[in-house]
Specification:
Length: about 325
């Protein structure tokens, strides 16, 4: 246990026969359960796991590859069945240093956050080993995930080094969370809809000799689709269905005015191209909606940033006053 909480480590693994033993043997003693999910690996990942002598290890093998998200969801469900209070993700490629695990666990056991995640971008030096194109891609993806998820204070959304309370996971419809590369992004959207307080923890990345199997031609459209639909799903639940918020009003009116203003502006441009002199009233008919709509969208953005669930709640693992006597 860790500070009174039962800890389960969920280890998604795909073609990790060379590293999975390292992940298991370096797992800290305070981790109570190690749930390894072999996502239909074509190598001997499962055989290596079975050869370990750690009694905490439980192996689950998918007969059909479900992606990293599907493996994590399977592991979360089993960890909940085992009675874990907190689930942590430890990748099967040993890129997540267990020495930094207490920093994540402290946020959910001491400070009252429901979800904590690693952030590799806490200083310029922290990404010195990351290729420039990956740094740029992560920055762009981080901003888009902020917009879609509403967690404006979080960064590095693809960092899978996370800790989450099982009481939070029990509220998340896990069968509706994306199962592949976009799992982390979609999970953040679901957590924000539930208004779960989340926090970033500065954790340096560990890079090895592994080769990524991610195909950008497939991943990028998947992420763009998920983030777009996730944004509107979050807006619908948080700001329309559960309580009609000024954020929704400003957003919808702002979009309507901007679209109207752009349509008029395009019409005016065609008129000018046809040698028709645009009057001051016609120009204002385009400019005024654009200015008002832009201001409304900025105001909606400001309110959405302020509504980001960043404040911890009561700590369920704290010892009640006087209980230690």
């Amino acid at each position: 246990m860790y500070k009174g909480a039962v800890i389960a480590a969920v280890v998604p693994a795909y073609k990790e026969e060379s590293m999975i033993a390292t992940v298991i043997t370096t797992m800290p003693d305070y981790v109570d359960h190690i749930v390894v999910v072999d996502d239909c690996s074509p190598d001997d990942t499962s055989g290596v796991v079975r050869s370990t002598v750690d009694p905490r290890v439980e192996l689950i093998r998918h007969e059909i590859n479900q992606g990293v998200g599907g493996a994590i969801i399977t592991g979360h469900r089993r960890a909940i069945e085992l009675g874990a209070d907190v689930n942590v993700i430890m990748a099967g490629d040993a890129q997540m240093d267990p020495q930094h695990l207490p920093a994540l666990l402290d946020e959910v056991t001491d400070r009252g956050f429901g979800f904590a995640k690693g952030n590799r971008f806490f200083s310029p030096e922290s990404v010195s080993g990351m290729p420039p194109y990956r740094v740029f891609g992560n920055f762009v993806l981080s901003f888009m995930t902020k917009l879609a998820s509403g967690y404006w204070h979080l960064f590095d959304p693809q960092n899978g080094y996370t800790a989450v309370r099982t009481e939070v996971l029990e509220r998340v419809p896990l069968d509706r969370v994306a199962k592949r590369y976009s799992f982390e992004n979609d999970l953040l959207i679901h957590l924000n809809i539930l208004q779960v307080p989340a926090v970033d923890v500065a954790i340096p990345a560990v890079y090895g000799d592994e080769v990524s199997s991610i195909r950008l031609s497939r991943v990028i459209p998947e992420l763009m689709t998920l983030l777009t639909s996730g944004f509107w799903r979050r807006i619908w639940y948080r700001y329309v269905l559960w309580s009609f918020s000024p954020i929704a009003l400003l957003l919808f009116l702002g979009i309507l005015l901007v679209v109207f203003g752009l349509a008029v502006a395009i019409w005016v441009c065609f008129q000018i191209a046809g040698s028709v002199v645009a009057t001051a009233a016609t120009v204002m008919l385009a400019a005024l909606p654009l200015m008002l709509g832009t201001q409304m969208l900025i105001s909606a953005l400001q309110l959405d940033i302020q509504a980001s669930p960043s404040h911890p709640t009561l700590n369920p693992f704290a010892v009640p006053r006087g209980a230690e006597d």
